[in-house]
Amino acid sequence: MSKYSVIGQRVRRVDGPDKVTGSAKYTFDMVLPNMLYGKILRSPYPHAKILNIDTSKAEKLIGVKAVVTGKDTLGRKQGIWRRFPELCDEEILCREKVRYIGDPVAAVAAIDEDTAEEALDLIEVEYEPLPAVFDPLEAIKEDAPQIHDGVELNMNVTRHIEWGDVDEAFKKCDYVREDKFKCSSQAHVCMETHDAVASFDHGGKLTVWTSTQSSYYIQRLLADILDLREGDIRVIKPPTGGGFGSKFELDSAQFCAVVLSMKLRQPVKIVLSREEEFTATKRRTPMYYYLRLGAKKDGTLLAKEVRVITEGGAYTAMGATALYLTGFFSSFPYKYPNYRYDGYRVYTNTAPSSAMRGFGAPQSTFTGESQLDMLAHDLGIDPIEIRRKNGMTPDYEVPGQAFIQSCGLHECLDSIDEYIKKRGELPPNHGIGVAAYGFMSGGIFNWFDTPYAFSAALVRVNIDGKVDLFTGACDIGQGSDTTLSMICAEELGVRLEDIRIHASDTDICPADLGAWGSRETLMNGNAVKMAAADAKSQILEYAAAKMGANIVYDLDIKDQWVHLVDRPERGVSYFDMVKEAIRGRDGEVIIGRGHYTPHRKGMISPAYSFGVQAVEVEVDPETGKYGLTNVTTAHESGTVINPVGIEGQLEGAIMMAGGYGFCEDQPMDGGNILNPSIADYKLIRSLDMPETEILEIDTYEPEGPFGAKEAGEGLTNPTAGAIGNAVYDAVGVRVTDLPITPEKVFRALRDKEKQSKQS
Amino acid sequence: MSYHCPVCKKVSSTAMDLARHMIGRGDKVHRDWIKDKGFKYSELLTMQFQSFGNEGYEALAQVLEKETKVED
């Protein structure tokens, strides 16, 4: 029997009924009195000087209330790297130069969307097109056009990681492989596009409702760029239709709606179109990967060298972190005694690349797990066995980088091995590929330079026993409102229905860095647990006196019952005790406070999850057409807070990561994305979904609330690599550039045929 | 024996390692030093991504071997 009464229960989401009945009001649904509608004019050129913007005709159009350009702003560049001003390089309404097709140059507010759209056509922008560059290997050449003044060779940032003596270790290897890979881009494709409603009132208060992964970041970034005080800005996140890394930076919908509203003192709403979502928001970082891997004959890995150059696009965005993390996670989940990573991020005249679910790790896992299988094949070692031989274990230190406490990787390998053996002999042209992975539970990064705790929470226990939980955490669809409510209920000793969560409203909730890097469960969960414990201790102080218990007895609350731990039958109702406690405190309600900031937990994260995934494919050797038939994942994420939540995360991750491996791409011509619609951008749809199975492995993470750690992004990491390995297992061809489309498999099969005929 | 970076004084045990450091840093002062020796930084870096082996590093390491070696 579980020692928990709430944790581990299969509960429905606290926001579920509103969402499934359609009564949840997203930013998209919001209408305010006197609200205007905004649209944004964007650059048609990948690189050009702005010589003049004439808005006079647009301003005269009936129904148009205002047109703004960069001249209506303070002209400040912004970015999320606030500690590093040179990396805050994005001017959302460009004044002098545009750097990619989609860069905003003007915005209109009108009485309706059609009028605003019509007005965009009347704005005359005079450009002087400049030479443009789209590939990072071209952009670093000395004769390439310079995208940002003062940034020679378009070199945005470099990142380097090293431990051991790599060169010496390679000399000692029995076998060394060198391989190149190319990782493609991917769009986030949130159900809800970027949108915002901004309202600047006559008292100087700016309120912004927006679909975001961090209300606090948007509040602070707006304060910087508008020169307002943080307290003069209120950012509220209504229910949000997905983020996946695309919504924790200030975006054009938010900024343009604010600039228009401040000019007009009227609410302005901007919703990006699906085409804008594809072309003018950020995307997964494309990467060129060079890998060198050395091992002993028995498969013991001795050294790995990784070189990466990424297509940064026009601005830094979160790409610098993706560059670091792809290097760090290239060492995962194995114990490399000698490791070296050199990463380069290069500006190009393409849509900026940035964070996306997995944050650089899907790229490193695809390349690393592909190459590891290639090496295992060359050495005649079973793919599971080579992973067992080198896999991370509990209490392992990644030299100079990270300390891993809980780690269930070997149990996951055992579980997948058992699954594959049970599956038995595969039908012809079927193959199973495996990939192992790990991921972080929130990042120990403060490039944002927040002075606040990374996470904070406040618990208010009311006279009727109802509990208000205030948190800056952002539920973007991943279910954090439910997870945090469960943690609060368990710690306080009440039921889930006793908790009412108020989240991501900067006026009433404590600051929180938001939903990125799989941080909410561990970081905000710890803050919530601490706040609930604080509130509980106040109730128990009163209860101890009231109950007259011997001081040697401990008191606790479980399932709404305040009792002696050793004699649980001796107790009183939680509701009665709360009522009396508040009366006894001169009517002051009970407030608990909690916060969490990781200290002395290494460079990357306070905890890591692990897993192994097996993908089965069926390939037609004539056409290269193939399908995913089954995806089975052994995953460990510490104590499972809500099993339903993990299942949802897993299925969503397979759809997203399967798409990354199988079909999603953003081909460009001259910086122009060629498939900016749901019709042309190929996603895995519900009918394409394979059978999925999750094999949950029990672990306990000492740093996490009730032993929990991440279960969100890590699941996105293995699938592309496992698909590549499965295709190889089925028909013996290896595709090293993503996505692994049937066309590429077809070409590889024909090349293989030619080679075998020649030999 | 060690090799001292002529720009930031970082100490490396081999000229190859120092070459990797100088290309890896990639900032203007390191790039300028490389350029003064007659190399194009971008070409050295591109070599590292377009061909296997360490052609780019090796070319620079030959110069560093002569100019930055320090007898300990």
Top keywords for this entry?
heterodimer; A: 759 residues; alpha+beta; Aldehyde Oxidoreductase, domain 4; Aldehyde Oxidoreductase, domain 3; 3 domains; seven-stranded mixed sheet; five-stranded mixed sheet; 18 helices; 29% helix; B: 72 residues; mainly alpha; three-stranded antiparallel sheet; 4 helices; globular
- What is the H-and-E element order of chain B? EEHHHHE
Give me the Rg of chain B, rounded.
11 Å
What strand line-up does the widest sheet of chain B have? 2-1-3
* Average pLDDT reading of chain B: 88
Secondary structure tally, helices of chain A: 18
Multimeric organization: heterodimer
Structural class of chain B: mainly alpha
Kindly identify the CATH topology of the largest domain in chain A.
Aldehyde Oxidoreductase, domain 4
Rounded mean pLDDT score of chain A: 96
Across the major sheet of chain A, the strand order is 3-5-1-12-9-10-11
Basic shape of chain A: globular
Shape, per Cα inertia axes of chain B: globular
Structural class of the helices, strands and pairings of chain A?
alpha+beta
